[in-house]
Predict the structure.
Amino acid sequence: MALQITKENYQSIISSTQPVVIDFWAEWCGPCRMVAPIVEELAAEYNGKAIIAKCDVDSNDDIVADYKIRNIPTLIFIKNGEVVDKHVGAISKDALKAKIDALL
């Protein structure tokens, strides 16, 4: 299961030694609901290899502002504390998996 990002756990997640993928989403967003099952499947598949997390844009204004998120869904890919890739919009499981594999 993907980790839910909150203000309390945000810093520890992004400072992880493992690669991090953050899915910025909202409950009212149709494309976000399409991506959600893919994110959950890959969170289970990459457990122990990468951190897959979800950030509700309606509850985390500060985090959304930090990454200048303007559209959702947006997925950001972090390695060694730095954003190395970003994808805006819906994405297929194969394409997302390829992006995660590139981080490992």
